[in-house]
Amino acid sequence: LCPEAVSGPPHTCPDVSRVQLVAYSPALRRCRRTGHTAIVPAGSRAQGKAAEAADRGPGFIHQPRQVLIPVETGVRKVTLSCEAHGNPRPVYRWFRDGSLLELEAVPRYRLVGGSLIIEQPRDISDAGSYQCLASNAIGSILSREGRIRFTGK
């Protein structure tokens, strides 16, 4: 037997010697002892696209940061970044000062991917601490705080 050729049920090396290698694939393994090639049986180990398809909770790639806006510049748009990986793909919600933002109720707010875009940011209504919540069927994670502050007053 050549158990190191694959993870999963071992294959006999003479059996795998009859396999003709046409192209390299992550599903093919070479027996360390004999040099023969073995095929990793389907379902024996998650790999390649199968590993990507494994369910997992969200994990952050990008989180919001502090944004300083000089009042006199008339900034047209502010983006608070939030991006997470996970399977199923995460959905995003945003909080300002601990309260859920109803993005549909404020036309100046848009969600692009997971990032929050604020058009024509306003000192009184938009300054504060923002957090992104990324959720999927496996779990949820809350980002670090990103602050929008207006300077020059």
Task: Please outline what is shown here.
By secondary structure, this protein is mainly β. Helices cover 8% and strands 39% of the residues.
Structural account:
It contains 3 helices and 13 strands; from the N terminus they run αββαββββββββαβββ. The chain has a domain at 72-151: Immunoglobulins (Immunoglobulin-like, Sandwich), CATH 2.60.40.10. It is mainly β and 153 residues long. The termini are far apart. β1 (28-30) and β2 (37-39) form a beta hairpin. Residues 1-29 and 37-47 have low confidence and may be disordered. Strands 4, 7, 8, 11, 12 and 13 form a 6-stranded mixed beta sheet that branches. The chain has a 3-stranded antiparallel beta sheet with strand order 5-10-9, with no helix packed on it. Residues 64-149 form the Ig-like domain. Pfam families: Ig_3. Keywords: Disulfide bond, Repeat. InterPro entries: Ig-like_dom, Ig-like_dom_sf, Ig-like_fold, Ig_sub2.
Keywords:
153 residues, mainly beta, Immunoglobulin-like, 6-stranded mixed beta sheet, 3 helices, 13 strands, 8% helix, elongated, disordered N terminus, Ig-like_dom, Ig-like_dom_sf
